[in-house]
Amino acid sequence: MTSRAFKENAGAAPIGIDNLAGEDSAAISAKTYAEFLQRHEVVMRDEVTMLGFKAAIEANADLFRNAIVLEVGCGSALLSLWAAQQGAARVIAVEPSAVCQVARQLVRQNQLEHVIEVMQGNVEQLQLPKVDIIISKWMGACLMYSSTLEAVIYARDKWLKPGGSIFPHMANLYIAAANQPRDSPDRFSSPQHYWTHYSGLDLRQAWRIIQQTPAIGCVDAAQVLTQRQVLRRFDMRTLQRSELSFAVPFKLRTLRQAIAKWFVLYFDFRFPGATHLKPITTSPSAASTQWKQALFHIDAHLPLCVGDVIDGQFRVERGIRHLDFDIDWSFHNELVNVELHKQIYRMQGEAEAV
Known about the structure:
Layout: H1 3-8, H2 30-44, H3 47-59, H4 61-64, E1 68-72, H5 78-85, E2 90-95, H6 100-109, E3 116-120, E4 131-135, H7 148-159, E5 160-167, E6 170-178, H8 192-196, H9 204-211, E7 215-217, E8 229-235, E9 246-253, E10 258-259, E11 262-270, E12 280-281, E13 293-297, E14 303-304, E15 309-318, E16 322-332, E17 337-348
Parallel strand pairs: 1-2, 1-4, 2-3, 4-5
Antiparallel strand pairs: 6-8, 6-11, 7-13, 9-15, 10-14, 11-12, 11-13, 15-16, 16-17
Domain Methyltransferase: 69-164
Keywords: Methyltransferase, S-adenosyl-L-methionine, Transferase
Organism: Drosophila virilis (Fruit fly)
């Protein structure tokens, strides 16, 4: 679907950002617009995800009608606008950054300020009424790499009415192994000596950090070498913060012969009351989304044959601004024997920008 088609499918009200630089934007600084574009343009251009949310809201029109709705981490507040179009009695859109000013403009331009209130702040620091529905794009890279996830859990425990709904309410995190595409060189394709002897300098530490940092990129379905395995199912109705760090064993059975270069993590999620809608997925076999896939470099020679099995344990520890991963794995066939191999990775930085 093209960007033009996305705008045409946005609903009855003219939801869009075409006139944000007009007279109504005089009080918004250039810095705020730059932040909006940096953080949220990629989100708004992710038609798979955004139109998936819109379809789920429309499929649950009876649920949204006359409901009090809370959007956590609203960004441009498109989800709030669509909820209001389905007859919500009140929508509270919460955004911690100054981008909430842009959201307020969109609300005014679509003449929904009598329904939607945009509030700047963290949900943990606000006083809000009880709500019928929480809606949020809380997912991040590796599903969990977003501070909005904790905010949704807090809002659920604090303000969601008994029997209330969360959109989306279920998510699955998967792991598989993949090879390196011939026509897509990556940061690991340069030989190690490029980093360790760079123009007479010793940069071995840079090489180690590169190996231990997950990459965010797109893997083609043809590169996937093994069956997938579910690492974790997240039920947002019951999920606790303590469950965001976990360890789980895995067995990946090989489907095709090649040399494995990556462990690949991806996820899908679904909405309540919309059983006829397919889950939104970041699978390599589906259309690309803003999250792509998370790639964990395998630093050992791993030639796979059909029917081989990679045994291992996946562990993640959640920090305030990072995720630490341990992937312990073993493998053997007629070509190679790896009794036990430990690899550690860290994903860090600004979660919302990943």
